[in-house]
Amino acid sequence: MRNILHIKASIRGDESISNQLGDRIVAGLREKGDSRLAIRDLAAEELPFVSAERFAANLAPADERTAGQAELAAISDRLIEELENADTIVISTPVYNFGVPASLKAWADLVARAGQTFKYTENGPVGLLTGRKAYIAAASGGTKIGSEIDFMSPWLTFFLGFLGITEVEIVAADGIMGADGEAVIAAAQEQAERIAA
Question: For FMN, which residues are the binding ones (predicted)?
Fold first, then answer.
């Protein structure tokens, strides 16, 4: 049984190219056999930014939290549980102003928890979510993925690796506002279908 977590970060819903690419990847993965799918649409909800109080609540052991801390930590607990339950993660994200959407950064801040998704050792931090594969389905109007102005894909790939998710594959429809935008989208859709086949 494959457990898939699809994280969507675009504000454009069904019209989003990154969401469409991610949906194609998910569909292909699900055709391979039995699977369970969880979808976390970051644009459909407002994740909280981490405050000092929320940070302290997230780090407090669950059995030692006050009622207020338990309430503050609840969303982080849920997001981490979704990651822990998944063996395949698909992240659909646009490039906004050369980086990830604020909602995706908020998600990252909530799932990065010392002692649960990573740990500190004498040799530096070690990710604890090993054995998982991630796909990044990306779209951008003008930023070429992998270019010097792309701060989304290197950051997101590094962050996933920090959590122990080192097998990451990127499908990108980048520079879609250019003259050959339709061809770029079509090529990315074909790539999404191939990698999930």
Answer: 10, 16-18
Residue list, annotated binding site: 10, 16-18
Cut 0.90: pTM above it: yes
Annotated binding site for FMN: 10, 16-18
- Identify the three-state secondary structure at position 125: strand
Q: 139: alpha, beta or left, given left = phi > 0 and alpha = psi -120 to 50?
A: beta
Torsion, CA 55, CA 165, CA 105, CA 60, rounded to 10 = -10
- For the segment 2-24, what is each residue's pLDDT rounded down to a tens digit? 999 999 999 998 999 999 999 99
- Tell me how far CA of residue 135 lies from CA of 71, 75, 157, 166, in angstroms: 31, 23, 10, 11
Q: Tokens 């998710």 sit at which residue?
A: 165
Instruction: For residue 23, give the nearest of 165, 75, 12, 82 by alpha carbon.
Output: 12
- What is the number of domains present in the chain? 1
Q: What is the DSSP letter of 99?
A: B
Instruction: Give the pLDDT confidence of 106-147 residue by residue, as tens digits.
Output: 999 999 999 999 999 999 999 999 999 999 999 999 999 999
CATH number for the domain including 135? Answer: 3.40.50.360
What is the SS3 assignment for 41?
strand
